[in-house]
């Protein structure tokens, strides 16, 4: 694995996370609650829903996130001829289920990428998806 690939993956996620944070900031007045002290907050369930919808929406409709697009990365499926209809969406959802664990413990994100042949994170391994660099045309 080239170090540039790892940096691209990490920075692509960083860009995606910044865009997500800006989205939440814009939506905050509409999705926040005030506690008895007058402090505003977002319920955990709503925050997680926004997080997962943000990433799943991009993966399903664009087949990549904005960060991956900027760094010329793409999602590829093992056995793409067998992936059609709901199977594609199911794999994308399975892949994203591990995001929270990878956010809480970044080593769970980085170690599999460094150690696996196709540089896959934990969710990628389980969902049989790989993130690859787009070939230069």
Commentary on this structure:
The chain has 137 residues and is mainly alpha-helical. The protein has one domain (3-133). Helices cover 64% and strands 10% of the residues. The protein is built from seven helices and four strands, in the order H-E-E-H-H-E-H-H-H-H-E. The strands form two sheets. Strands 1-2 form a two-stranded antiparallel ribbon. Helix 1 crosses helix 2 (44-62) and helix 2 crosses helix 4. The mean pLDDT is 89.
Provide key terms for this protein.
single chain; 137 residues; mainly alpha; two-stranded antiparallel ribbon; two-stranded antiparallel sheet; transmembrane; membrane; RDD; RDD domain-containing protein
Percent range for helical residues? 55-70%
**Count of all domains:** 1
Low-confidence stretches: none
Question: N-to-C terminal Cα separation, in Å?
Answer: 21 Å
> Order of SSEs, N→C?
HEEHHEHHHHE
Q: So what's the oligomer here?
A: single chain
Tell me how many strands there are. Answer: 4
Please list the strands of the largest sheet in the order they lie side by side.
1-2
Structural class: mainly alpha
Biggest sheet record: 2 strands, antiparallel
Count helical runs: 7
Residue fraction in strands: 5-15%
pLDDT average, as an integer?
Answer: 89
Radius of gyration: 16 Å
* Shape by Cα distribution: globular
Briefly, what is this?
One of its GO terms (cellular component) is membrane. This protein is mainly alpha-helical.
Secondary-structure blueprint:
Blueprint: H1 3-31, E1 33-34, E2 40-41, H2 44-62, H3 66-70, E3 73-77, H4 86-97, H5 99-104, H6 106-115, H7 122-127, E4 129-133
Antiparallel strand pairs: 1-2, 3-4
């Amino acid at each position: 694995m080239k170090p540039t690939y790892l940096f691209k993956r990490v920075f692509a996620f960083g860009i995606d996370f910044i865009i997500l944070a800006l989205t939440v900031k814009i939506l905050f007045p509409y999705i926040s609650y005030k506690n008895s002290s007058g402090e505003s907050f977002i319920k955990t369930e709503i925050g997680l829903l926004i997080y997962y919808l943000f990433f799943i929406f991009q993966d399903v409709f664009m087949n990549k996130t904005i960060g991956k697009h900027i760094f010329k990365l793409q999602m590829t499926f093992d056995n793409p001829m067998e992936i059609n209809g709901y199977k594609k969406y199911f794999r994308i959802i399975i892949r994203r289920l591990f995001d929270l664990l990878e956010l809480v413990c970044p080593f769970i994100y980085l170690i599999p990428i460094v150690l696996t042949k196709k540089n896959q994170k934990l969710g990628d391994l389980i969902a049989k998806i790989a993130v690859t660099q787009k070939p230069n045309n």
